[in-house]
Amino acid sequence: MVTKFIFWLQKVHLHLMLWEVGRKLTNKCTNDAEFKKLLDGKNVVLQFETQDRAISRHYIIKNNTVASILGSHVKPTTTLSFVDAAYAITTLKNKDPMDLMKGVQEQKIKPAGDIANLVWFVNAARSSN
């Protein structure tokens, strides 16, 4: 019973983390000219999910805006799939990009699509803090 509750809490935590990233980026689109310049020419769909797809959120970057949408996109440009919610939380909270690389090497994170978009997104999201 306790274990199920902990897994549920981790899923909720990840949902909130991914939602908050989208909220911050959307806010930056309207309030930060420098951030808006980072969006120039971008037309991508970035998706973050758990490997069982119990949690999925995608971000549509198009026309100098960011839309954060719950659920999976039919055809994302880039996807980052985490082994589970707990691992995603730990990795995304850590500021060290080497943790992402380590996760990929250990196959706890599976990237798909154009990884250059992921690198751009991570840098853009960090600039929004």
Structure characteristics:
5 helices
CATH architecture annotation: 2-Layer Sandwich
**Count of alpha and pi helical runs:** 5
Number of domains: 1
Could you spell the SSE succession in H and E letters? Answer: HHEEEEHHEH
Mean pLDDT: 89
What is the end-to-end distance? 37 Å
Helix content: 40-55%
Biggest sheet features: 5 strands, mixed
CATH homologous superfamily label: SCP2 sterol-binding domain
Strand content: 15-25%
Concise account of the structure shown:
With 129 residues, the protein is α+β, with helices and mostly antiparallel strands. 52% of the residues lie in helices and 23% in strands.
Task: Give a structural overview.
By secondary structure, this protein is α+β, with helices and mostly antiparallel strands. The chain has a single domain (2-127), classed as 2-Layer Sandwich (Nonspecific Lipid-transfer Protein, Chain A). Helices cover 52% and strands 23% of the residues. It is built from five helices and five strands, in the order H-H-E-E-E-E-H-H-E-H. It has helices at 2-31, 33-38, 85-93, 97-105, 115-127, and strands spanning 44-50, 56-62, 65-70, 78-82, 109-113. The longest helix is centred in the N-terminal third of the chain and has 30 residues, at 2-31.
